[in-house]
Amino acid sequence: MNTLLLVLDLIGTFVFALSGATAAVKRRLDLFGVLVLSFVAGNFGGITRDLMIGAVPPAAISDWRYLAVSLLAGVLTFCWFPGVDRRHNSVLLFDAAGLALFAVSGTQKALALGLDPVMAALLGMVTGIGGGMVRDVLVAEIPTVLRADLYAVAALAGATVVVAGSLLHIPSTATTIAGAALCFGLRLMAIRRGWQLPIARPRKHFEEDP
Questions:
Q1: What's the chain's average pLDDT?
Q2: What is the 8-class DSSP label of residue 200?
Q3: First to last CA, the chain
Q4: How far is CA 32 from the centre of its chain?
Q5: 190, 135 contact by CB (below 8 A)
Q6: Which of these, 6, 148, 15, 7, lies nearest to 70 by C-alpha position?
Q7: Which residue from 200, 69, 58 is spatially nearest to 142, judged by alpha carbons?
Q8: CA dist., res. 202 & res. 160, Å (int)
């Protein structure tokens, strides 16, 4: 289980770091800015998770591999951006993959430390959305989680599958794969089909002519 969590964390860190680096290059940041954004996007969700469950120092700080994969993603994107960005909406695709991986790994780690299943699912969701939120704030955008089609809901759905599998004593590998696939699939379909939650629509106030 520890090996599975580590692999999911590192892959999630890499793809989220790619999304952060891609957003940085599109905003024409320098190399340092690209590396900072790749590290923040790739690790902030995991750092938040570890701090909330008392796993200190956070893995992203205590394990050099998290920094290494984040910087690798940043350098690859900076040097070969056309290749990384070849597919349309690459930031959204990398973000969806990172969201799925972090949602399930965060949930599994919370369950492994004995958290209540409901809180474990919520923590998995927080793990998934954390890096993307900070990435968007740093490039002066409204965070995707506040405006996107089924973002946090997709993360929560994937986390719920992991929790349900744990309660039903289904092998963790199977539930982790299923949860990640559901989260990624929901997010991808939401991007392509425009699925979204109801949007707030302020009332229009009309002033009467004097």
A1: 85
A2: P
A3: 72
A4: 22
A5: no
A6: 15
A7: 200
A8: 33
Task: Report CA 14 to chain centroid distance, whole Å.
Answer: 11
Specify the length of the chain in residues.
210
Dump pLDDT digits (tens) for 41-82. Answer: 999 988 998 898 888 899 889 999 999 999 999 999 898 876
What's the pLDDT tens digit per position in 96-118?
888 898 899 899 989 988 889 99
Residue among 63, 209, 39, 24 at smallest CA distance from 131 = 39
Which residue's structure tokens are 């909406």? 89
Which pair of tokens denotes residue 76? 């690859």
Instruction: Kindly list the domain boundaries of the chain, sorted by start residue.
Output: 2-193
Cβ(34)–Cβ(17) under 8 Å?
Answer: no
Q: Write the single-letter amino acid at 165.
A: G
Distance CA 25, CA 15 (A): 15
